[in-house]
Amino acid sequence: MRTAFLLFLLVVGLVPARGADWTLLKHDGRDYVTLDNVAEFYGLGPVRRVSNAVVVGGGPRTLRGARGSAEFYINNLKFILSYPLAEAGGKLLVSRMDLTKVIEPVIRPDRIRGADHIDTVVLDPGHGGHDAGAVGQWGREKEYTLDVACRARQILIQHGFKVHMTRIDDRFVPLEDRAKFANQFSHAIFVSIHFNSGGPAASGLEVYTLAPQGVPSMMSDGPRITDLQLCRGNSRDSENMALACATHAAIVAHSQMYDRGIKRARFVVIRDVTIPGVLVEGGFLSSAHDSRLIASTAHRQNMAFCIAAAAQNYRNAVGPQTAPVLAVDSVRLREIGESPESGVGKKNSEPAVVLRTAN
Ligand SMILES: [Zn+2]
Asked: Please, is 81 exposed, middle or buried when counting C-beta atoms within 10 Å of its C-beta (0-12, 13-18, 19+)?
């Protein structure tokens, strides 16, 4: 019990969804709300607590987490919060930063203020030229990223999107130039495609969005002075998170990649883009499991389709629905040569992130 930290209460000036207000709690010098308040505001249902673990709501609108942990699940999709869940007065707390920058845009993307209707996707195949990126047993990052981007471009064009690429061949493009290139397009989103490298045990998918102002990058050892600067991409914090959610959900649901979560960083390309942007780390070329998958044409085609499906889902989530959700499963079955009757093989449980939420 750390009720001593409950220094004062105030009501946030947000429009309540169901007659509920926000009550801010000051805890360790930071603003928090209780998960009970979150449940009430969004009408999610009961808050169930077993020891340190907590589950809010049920069915397709479930939040899950644990005291002291930054791993937080919204409808089975993993988010790495900027601050771990805290506890005060016997209640679990989520930071105001994570409420406004993660939970709100994921649960109610249709309420993101100023979100553009999109018709354009800027694809950014990572690395190129003298910069090979990570090197796996069967290939190099710069070739895989270009291959996935070219495949995604084709699918997106087939579905009515305009597509631009920061590079279309094996050339080096400075990071700042990639962002500058993307920023000339309006009604557009930016998807940077990378593959990862790490220790022998590291594997799985990560999707990065720009860290909000004041939040440490998860790629740094601790807080830095640069955490305090407002980056150009911060004007799209909410859209960035909704796009990350759509992208991560599509790939996690339709690949054999371990879910490492949606994370925060200040990589140059997502820092400098002024359109909604994400950076996908589509598995570790240093991992035997991941590198074998990434080397498979079928997997890269599937990943490309997931990127296209995410663009479509994002477009539908933030604006009026103009096109049906892409049927990822049927395409995947064809690509990997399975007959529909044979089932989908190993498939992660559907995160079922329902981006559009009835209020
Ligand atoms: Zn890379």
From this structure: buried
